[in-house]
Amino acid sequence: MRFRTSSYVRLFRLSSFISELRESARPPRRLTRPTFYGGVHSLLTRKLTMQSGRNANHGNCCGAEGRAEKPGPGLRGSPSLSSEDSGSPAEKRRAASSLLVHERHLRSPSPLVDDDSEAESFRDGRSEEVDRDTKSRAFLWCRDFLSGSWKTVGEADFQISIISGGLSNLLYLCCLPEHVPCVGEEPRQVLLRVYGAILQGVDSLVLESVMFAILAERTLGPKLYGIFPEGRLEQYLPNTRMRTEQLSDPGISAEIATKLARFHKMVMPFNKEPKWLFGTIDKYMDQVMKINFVREAHVKKYKKLMKFDLPAELKRLRSLLAATPSPVVFCHNDVQEGNILMLEDRDNGSTESLMLIDFEYSSYNYRGFDFGNHFCEWMYDYTYNEWPFYKVTPENYPTREQQLFFIRSYLAEHHRHSKCDLDQTQIEEDMIIEANRYALASHFLWGLWSIIQAKISKIEFGYMDYAQSRFDAYFKQKKLYS
User: Which residue intervals make up region (Disordered) (predicted)?
Assistant: First the structure.
């Protein structure tokens, strides 16, 4: 699937948005921590919840059920690493703003130990509420971008609810009240995505917006209804929330592999050099080595992590992957259950029920990272609502047989329109090594990412515990595949 000439029309229409985004992404000089574009840091005054039930684009109209969206590389713009909150738990819960970041989670017992003040702060779980300022801004965005009946509804009748506990973005379901009919083709409900604080530059946001528009045009992703510096309005797709344990279901695993093979075949108008992986890791490493934590619990956990000698370990990882052949393809880079919709309303004759979403990390990258990262996701549960708000079950990492099943499903789609004369058995063996070595890169990347989030994020999440879990998994995996 190639980038069609007609797509340039969409890119041209995005030019004014991109210009505005670059200007508004510059943080006010006096702020000591990153804020959202245009100084709208007061927009996010509550934290999201990791909820069970339905996925990001699903739920009863404006119900509270939602999916746990996964994180990714953090702060757009130049983040200040001086935002760690050392105040009391009560002060933290009254914080006027909430900085979100890209992330992941693991399955381990809740580390509620006596000296862990961070764990003690969240004994009651996550808070869940849409604040007044967020509702007002959402109302204006829906009215201005959706028009039709949305312009006739007053803010008092406007319906909005949190539908995800994402660590990357804030996700809301916005609905017209039942008594208001549509006057045209405007949607009755939409997904509002408000960008969180992320660790990459504004250019990555621009590319992701362009990518989303292209995939929407190709019907490979949700429709795009509106785009603005603070976020966008997307098509709401009724779906059942995928659970982590469903990733191992043979039927689901085969379809995910098929979707991934098609994704890898796409030709996109982006830099074809695989700079994303180690470019991101190097950037994170530089920040991690300069971090100064204030909170005692963070200081202890940081010192423990530093005993791994991460800079030296990164050199070894780089050498290992340099010796591991892996083709460069257009990768999703975040294929986990929260980014896969199980669609409910499909054509009667369709045998496909899944759709990949959330392309903020997509880029040209080594194919093995998509495999390894996805296999790691089999262990992670993002719906745990008690400290540290994640669980990891290491034994859920796919077995050799499960990996082969996934790889064979991938290859079946990959070779569907072309003949392969190579030894299939050897290809499969090479891909297993490729996937499991690049799983190391997944652990390393998100481990570093999580350390930074512990410093700058206001999200209710055990980032330092999560970082420890990722590096523990890294060294365990390394013994098997280095």
Answer: 50-94, 107-128
Three-state DSSP at 37 gives helix
In the predicted model, is pLDDT for residue 86 greater than 70? no
Q: Are strands 340-343 and 391-392 parallel, antiparallel or unpaired?
A: unpaired
Q: Which fold has domain 7-481?
A: Aminoglycoside 3'-phosphotransferase; Chain: A, domain 2 (3.90.1200)
Cα 170 to Cα 97: distance, rounded to the nearest angstrom: 12
pLDDT tens-digit profile of 343-365?
986 654 456 799 999 888 899 99
Q: Where are the domains of the chain?
A: 7-481
Which residues partner with 477 through β-bridges? none
Q: What does the pLDDT look like over 214-234, one tens digit per residue? A: 988 888 889 999 999 889 999
- The dihedral through the CA atoms of 435, 243, 445, 37 has a sign that is positive
Rounded Cα gap, residues 277 and 314, in angstroms: 12
Give the orientation angle of helix 424-456 with respect to helix 367-377, to 10 degrees: 70
269 exposure class (CB count in 10 Å sphere: 0-12, 13-18, 19+): middle
Backbone angle region of 214, left / alpha / beta, with phi > 0 → left and psi within -120 to 50 → alpha: alpha
Distance, CA of 173 to CA of 298 (rounded, Å): 35
Give alpha helix (H) positions in 25-116: 89-93
Could you tell me the two tokens for 364? Answer: 């040209």
Gap between the Cα atoms of 248 and 11, Å rounded: 38
Can you tell me the distance from the alpha carbon of 102 to that of 120, in angstroms, rounded to the nearest whole number? Answer: 24
Q: Taking the mean position of all CA atoms in its chain, how far away is CA 183? A: 35
Single pTM value for the model: 0.74
Distances (CA, A) of 2 to 218, 241, 265, 267: 10, 31, 9, 5
CA pair distance 420, 65, nearest whole angstrom: 45
Confirm if 325 and 342 have CB atoms less than 8 A apart. no
Ramachandran angles phi, psi of 77, nearest 5°: 100, -165
